[in-house]
Amino acid sequence: MELKILITEEEIKKRIKTLAKDISEEFNGEKVTAICLLKGAFIFTADLVREMKTEVEIEFMRIKSYEGTEKGEDKLIYNVESDIEGKNVLIIDDILDTGGCLKTAVSVIKEKKPAKIKTCVLLEKERDKVIDADFVGFKIPDKFVVGYGLDMNELYRDLPYIAVVE
Ligand code: 5GP
Ligand code: MG
Ligand code: MG
Q1: Is ligand 1 within 6 A of the CB of residue 66?
Q2: Which is the most buried residue in 1, 31, 77, 90, by most CB within 10 A?
């Protein structure tokens, strides 16, 4: 197995600044509840919210889909705890693959009646998916990637860059 860098630390940093600006404008500078989809989005969320120009509240949610590199069924493991009714919500995920995970997250969050829901992913694979994200950091080829929060069997989340597993 070999790790080949696809997106460098510098490229990620630069892109997050422009993404954060666009997202802050989308919410007209109003307070946003950022919902981080665990575990993969934890590093992206930490960096993104620190570049946003609005006030933020942070919530977490966990939907599990992958076992190793195999895609399984989407399961809601942990739901947002606070009341988000009437709030501006930004759902943040690491990567959009089939879209199943983000679609599940959006439908669970919709039930809580927020005022506005927007979605943001760092990466989007070039393939067919069941939902689109409102904000996308980078479009990437349909390959398994790790780093910057994304794992393979719980390893490599700590890498500061995105790499393809070959
Ligand atoms: P989806 O439901 O869109 O098919 O998959 C979304 C979730 O699967 C992501 O949030 C991520 O946790 C995981 N995933 C999808 N593709 C990859 C990948 O290439 N690498 C890693 N490490 N996880 C992935
Ligand atoms: Mg995930
Ligand atoms: Mg994973």
Answers
A1: yes
A2: 90
